[in-house]
Amino acid sequence: MVKNKEKKGEVIDTIFSPEHTEKYAIGAAGGWSPYDFRIHFYSARYKSNPPGEEDIENEKFAYYINSTVILPPKPTKELAVWLLAHISDFEKNNAELLVEEGAPLKNLIKTIEYLSKYDLEELKKKLKKSEEGAEKKARIEEVKQKVARKKKSK
User: What residues of the chain score a pLDDT lower than 70?
Assistant: First the structure.
């Protein structure tokens, strides 16, 4: 399949390679280094491990990382801008997408424990900090609402 894109007045052909595949994902998580960003796309499915693979203990299903995309910093920012523009357009035509703060971290902690690739304690600290931030925001909003009610009642 060929798509044509215009860039600064010239047409650039975009061709899908024969190795191109599409993977469905329910979430993404990852991290960055001074050189690149790594985005792990994952899905959930019931365990049916091939012979020789370990089961993830006490789980009926597991999160499976389907693919990882590695991008330099500038294209990562361009991707973020592109995503935000399309999300904004989607929300204008549909409804606001609500996302729980820290959701990708919560969803991946068990998988990351299993894979043992990352510093789990650092991820848990980030998750706790994220949850504490959400609690503070909720308390601030509650105080603001009380102040507004008091002003109305005067």
Answer: 1-8, 46-61, 100-124, 126-127, 130-131, 154
Which residues are bridge partners to 68 per DSSP?
40
State the DSSP string of 44-110.
EEE--PPTTPPPPTT-SEEEEEEEEEEE-HHHHHHHHHHHHHHHHHHHHHS-PPP--TTHHHHHHHH
Sorted by sequence, the CB contacts under 8 Å of residue 7 that are 6+ apart come out as none
One-letter amino acid for residue 77 of the chain: K
pLDDT tens digits along 40-78 = 998 887 666 555 566 555 556 677 888 999 999 999 999
Q: What is the pTM of this model?
A: 0.52
Which residue ranges make up each domain of the chain? 22-119
Looking from the CA of 119 toward its CB, the CA atoms found within 13 Å total 5
Give residue 145's identity as a one-letter amino acid code: Q
Q: How far apart are CA 103 and CA 42, in angstroms?
A: 13
